[in-house]
Amino acid sequence: MGLLKEHKILQDLTDYPTQAYCNWKNLLEEQLENIEGKACQNFIEGLSRIRDLIEDIPHIATVSKFLETQTGWQLFPVEGLLASEDYFNLLSHRYFPVATFVRSGFDYTYSPVPDMWHDIFGHIPLLFDPCYSDFIKYLSSQYIARKDLQEFVGRIYWYTIEAGVCAERGNCRIYGASQLSSIEEINYALSSHPIVQPFDIDKVINSPVNIEKVQDQIFEIPALEYLKNIQHEFDHKFVKL
């Protein structure tokens, strides 16, 4: 893969200012408390596996090595936003892009631009769950293979992996990385404000995404394992034509 061969970004932990370390510490402390009774159990279990590695701004290579031994996934440090094609290409090869910068105090509780905190805390714990990680690889492979389906894939990815909720023992729980990594958004997602409706693939692919604000529309799946059903339905509707 060309992007991998050209990749030369290195992470130097001494380059981060003191404020970045303070922000990371504060985010971790507050969100560990905030996710109680809100995050899905699969996330909680995955988080416990990397907890010791993220006490401070983590060394991406160290987290990547541990993740690879446990799941086959690796982390891919990036300086900022990638083009969608590059992003999904990496995911389709089990490389998860991770930004090397940490959000500032200005966007502390909610950052519209994915930073290292969002990528590591929001996504990585659930990569230990095969349903979640296989679903990401599947969607990404479809994005790369079918340009005519890219908009549909992007919306499904958003309303599951980034802004998704599931039922757990009769309660609504969060598995979307955008909410899990945001002090503001996780509380909003479980409030009475957003419209929460059962996941319907036809509604999802016809629902435009606005990443610049917290989500007013959320689609709930009955369990994290339901991601397999979404994959099969997508296959039936769009791939096996």
From TrEMBL:
Protein name: Biopterin-dependent aromatic amino acid hydroxylase family profile domain-containing protein
Domain Biopterin-dependent aromatic amino acid hydroxylase family profile residues, every copy: 1-241
Cofactors (names): Fe(2+)
InterPro entries from the UniProt entry: ArAA_hydroxylase, ArAA_hydroxylase_Fe/CU_BS, ArAA_hydroxylase_sf, Aro-AA_hydroxylase_C_sf, Aromatic-AA_hydroxylase_C
Protein keywords: Iron, Metal-binding, Monooxygenase, Oxidoreductase
Organism: Okeanomitos corallinicola TIOX110
Lineage: Bacteria, Bacillati, Cyanobacteriota, Cyanophyceae, Nostocales
Transit peptide in keyword set: no
Family from the record: Belongs to the biopterin-dependent aromatic amino acid hydroxylase family.
Keyword Translocase attributed: no
Gene3D superfamilies, alphabetized: Aromatic amino acid hydroxylase
PROSITE patterns cross-referenced by the UniProt entry: BH4_AAA_HYDROXYL_1 (PS00367), BH4_AAA_HYDROXYL_2 (PS51410)
Top-rank taxon: Bacteria
